[in-house]
Backbone:
């Protein structure tokens, strides 16, 4: 029976709407041959509907995860119900470039996907419709917020001047290392050190130059440590280092390397060149300390002994 004029008009505006809507519409048969391909898909893929019609989707887009999409489509056809995936589960199905100027920080379009079953006259599912939503704006905003939160979390644990862990974060690691020793008995050592005659540095060259010396000490310390070691700025010109799996002898070798590299270097500041030294105290953890604070006190006592012995040296705590 031929379509009436009214029906033809309705079909025309419906087809026009499907072509112009800002959602990708792809109809596939159950062999994944493309049956419909709207304007959104043409614009972003550069492939016209006439060119892709009756082609297998995976042949045209080999980077689409075939096994994953096949499982999804099979489940939709069998259960006769929709399936959804978000950009957080899979960033995109079609690797389209992001063309939005506002969200140009992302290279590719983030997509949400809906897969809907399409039944024939018999009631059986004969095709499926993929609806592809461009959610780049939402994804970009959320990813930027996550990066900002990560940066804030990092800043909350980091000393702003030196980039080392701040006192609170570092002390928590000392406590954790102490508890690890109590549980497993692994050898570990703690180091406390500070800059010799730092007040004279500030008085002679100024506090900005003093900050440069502190940053220099932090840089050389980090440079001479292993990846497993943890350094922190304890306060002012005082620093701490956790040396896991390291006895006092091994800690002395590491500390001497740091001490010598600082002694032999020069800090170039606007107020002049500055040479300085450090004093270091080491405490290998034993069963004697009842908590991590007593362990820190042992390292601090060794540091005080290094000061009393003339500075610019490494002293190991003797119980």
Residues:
């Amino acid at each position: 029976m031929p379509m009436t004029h009214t029906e033809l008009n309705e079909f025309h505006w419906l087809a026009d709407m499907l072509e112009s809507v800002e959602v990708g519409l792809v109809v596939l048969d159950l062999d994944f041959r493309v049956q419909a391909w709207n304007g959104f898909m043409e614009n972003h893929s550069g492939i016209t509907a006439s060119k892709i019609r009756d082609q297998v989707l995976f042949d045209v887009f080999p980077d689409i995860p075939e096994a994953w999409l096949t499982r999804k489509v099979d489940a939709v056809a069998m259960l006769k119900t929709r399936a959804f995936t978000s950009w957080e589960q899979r960033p995109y199905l079609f690797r389209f470039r992001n063309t939005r100027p506002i969200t140009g920080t992302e290279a590719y379009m983030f997509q949400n996907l809906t897969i809907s079953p399409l039944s024939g006259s018999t009631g059986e599912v004969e095709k499926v419709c993929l609806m592809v939503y461009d959610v780049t704006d939402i994804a970009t905003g959320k990813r930027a917020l996550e990066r900002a939160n990560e940066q804030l979390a990092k800043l909350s644990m980091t000393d702003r001047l030196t980039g080392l862990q701040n006192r609170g974060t570092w002390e928590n690691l000392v406590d954790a290392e102490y508890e690890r020793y109590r549980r497993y008995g692994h050898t570990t050592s703690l180091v406390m050190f500070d800059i010799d005659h730092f007040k004279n540095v500030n008085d002679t060259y100024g506090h900005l130059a003093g900050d440069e010396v502190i940053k220099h000490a932090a840089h050389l310390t980090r440079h001479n440590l292993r990846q497993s070691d943890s350094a922190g700025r304890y306060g002012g010109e005082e620093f701490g280092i956790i040396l896991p799996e390291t006895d006092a002898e091994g800690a002395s070798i590491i500390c001497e390397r740091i001490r010598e590299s600082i002694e032999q270097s020069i800090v170039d500041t606007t107020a002049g060149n500055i040479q300085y030294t450090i004093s270091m105290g080491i405490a290998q953890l034993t069963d004697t300390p009842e908590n991590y604070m007593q362990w820190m006190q042992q390292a601090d006592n060794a540091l005080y002994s290094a000061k009393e012995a003339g500075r610019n040296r490494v002293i190991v705590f003797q119980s």
